[in-house]
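Hey team,

Filing this mostly as a record. A colleague (T.K.) asked me to run one chain through the structure pipeline before their review meeting, and I want the input and output archived in the tracker in case anyone asks later how it was produced. No errors, nothing strange. Just documentation.

Input sequence:
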Amino acid sequence: MSPRPTGSPILVRLDDAGGPRWGLVAGNAVDRGRTDCIGTEELETVVLDRQELRDLVDTVMTALESCSASLASTPGGAGWLYAQHVPVRRFVSEVLRKLLALDTWQPFVSAPGPVTTASYEGLVGLRTGSSREYLSHTVTWSGLAYLLGAEAPYDSTLLRDSSRASTENPESRSVRQTR
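Output structure:
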């Protein structure tokens, strides 16, 4: 029996004959002395240029506004992005923060490649501290890998669990349950 995954995933270089490849694996499954690797918790603490992040978020939000704000609206006629501006902006900020942090880690910058998801981690989670009335979603590192092109197996618990989001403790679950 393999050990149960613990803690945040670690980004590990998994080279093969096709070139550099990266994977998100359980922290207790890595020999840190044998390969390039970094804990995602370490990447979360990277100090970023706040103005650069703000400018990037503004650019993405402007693009969303021009491309998709009118695709859906509330019964009162407000566009979806107008109605959901704050949570969307926070989510976009989380995605960009992770991308910028990844861009500061030299081993990845010098040999970029595809990143595989952690099999036990969902793509989207709920931020700790979210109240029951306002659930704040965040992208996980596996979610970032998915946005960068990684395959994610279909998981029917995603749909079932998201329908129960308002009845569960937001600190104890993710939208897509871990295995």
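Quick notes for T.K.: The chain has a mean pLDDT of 79. The longest strand covers residues 10-13.
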